[in-house]
Design a protein that fits this description.
- The structure is a single chain.
- The protein has one domain.
- The protein is 67% helix and 0% strand.
- The N and C termini lie far apart (28 Å).
- The longest helix has 17 residues.
- It has 5 helices and no strands.
- With 91 residues, the protein is mostly helical.
Length: 91
């Protein structure tokens, strides 16, 4: 999935139309995508419907923070746990 396709899906999930917030959303999307990948979630899972949902939640969380605050919601954490579980190789 291209960055533009991912941005479009996240914006759709956030109910954002137009391009006036593209830069802000793209910056936060990059940060959340990197965070999710560094947590061990595979690219396949990041690009799944559930993955796009967690990216959307993460971007929304970052868009609504107060200055200097960094915190993801409980919903983000729950879905992240699910994504990490399905991304782990069978042992």
């Amino acid at each position: 999935m291209t960055d533009a396709e991912l941005l479009s899906k996240v914006k759709s999930g956030m109910l954002v139309q137009g391009s006036h917030l593209d830069v802000a959303i793209s910056q936060r999307l990059l940060a959340v995508k990197q965070y999710v990948g560094n947590a061990g979630v595979t690219t396949e899972q990041i690009e799944s419907d559930l993955g796009v949902a967690v990216l959307t939640l993460g971007v929304t969380d970052l868009m609504t923070l107060s200055g200097g605050e960094v915190k993801f919601s409980d919903a983000f954490d729950i879905i992240m746990t699910q994504l990490k579980a399905v991304s782990m190789p069978d042992v």
